[in-house]
TrEMBL record:
Protein name, entry field: histidine kinase
Highest taxon in the source lineage: Bacteria
Catalytic activity: ATP + protein L-histidine = ADP + protein N-phospho-L-histidine
MF-aspect GO terms: kinase activity
Main enzyme class: transferase
PANTHER family, per database record: NITRATE/NITRITE SENSOR PROTEIN NARX-RELATED, NITRATE_NITRITE SENSOR PROTEIN NARQ
Amino acid sequence: MSPHTVFAQAAARLRTANPYAVDAALAALVLFAVSLQWLFPDEGDDPLSWQGWLLGAATAVPLVWRRRAPFATACAVSAATPAMAVYHAPPPDVMYGGLVVLYTMAARGLPWQRRVMLVGWTIGVAVTMHHKEDARPFEYAFHLLCMACAYALGSVARVQRAYTAELEDRARRLERERAADTARAIAQERSRIARDMHDVLAHAVSLMVVQAEAGPVVLRTDPERAEASFDAIAAAGRDAMGQLRRILGVLKAEQKGGTSPQPGVAALPALVRRVAESTGLRTELHTRGEPHAMAPDAEVAAYRVVQEALTNTVKHAYASCATVELDWGEDHLTLTVTDDGRGPAAPGRGHGLIGIRERAAACGGSAETGRGPDGGFRVAVRLPAAADLQAALE
């Protein structure tokens, strides 16, 4: 195992350890270093006294509270260290406690506290060394370099802690944004599925209801027409079942290459013809302009809009004629469905008209519903082309 790995593991264990236990151990270590002069006295060295030891202990014991009260601890050690130097029995050879509080203030102190401590200790060391007997030039450099190193290490620790906190906060924000995006995507997909289910079922059931109501009326007088009505009911049911299978196949991730795609603009003539044949509603389809490529969602939206508009005509309008117009522009398709009926009692309401507007908006288009210029009801939807849709979404 490399020394770097050993150091990293030790640092990780130290970060997860009880901070009070770590600070108490650090204070004990500093106290031991300060007491070395008493434990191993040298002949002819500086004088020793128990008062001097108490002053030395005062530079170590406050370190127990260095995280709970960093500035108060720094002040206590800052007062005890020069007092020990002035008492001179013995003077401190190395400012162990001072180095710890400088590191602590650089790592945890407020900006003004860091500046006060750094300036105060720099001046204090210079003054103390100036009044020290037989002070040598290298001692100035040694103490000042030790102070600078301790303060620099504390500053690095502070920056590293802030950087780590920022990364953790960013990770939490990204996680929340990812969860929000997932919830939004789920809600949009549910809304899309609900629109598809509504369009398929409402259209098919409406055709079935119209034919079922007409069947008994003509059963005795025109059996062939009654038989055609029942055939239309069966065809509408089969078509609805087919479209529901496609939707459920997508939900179950079972849609393979051989499965029929969702209907688009190319299927509109068959839709208009089927409505005319199954309901007796005179329905016409007119196309202007040159057809061009559209995004898959826009293709499905165009089909569903026309399907929903014709369903509303059959169910609510009491109309005899409906016209579907496709107006191809250079960068858009305008769909217009008009009838000569009375229109809905409350224009703009109902799930069908809401679904039309939602489909158009989801594709980057717009929808207008209301009474037509010559009476009846009119649905006008503008859908962008593939390139225009991409630009709108970007």
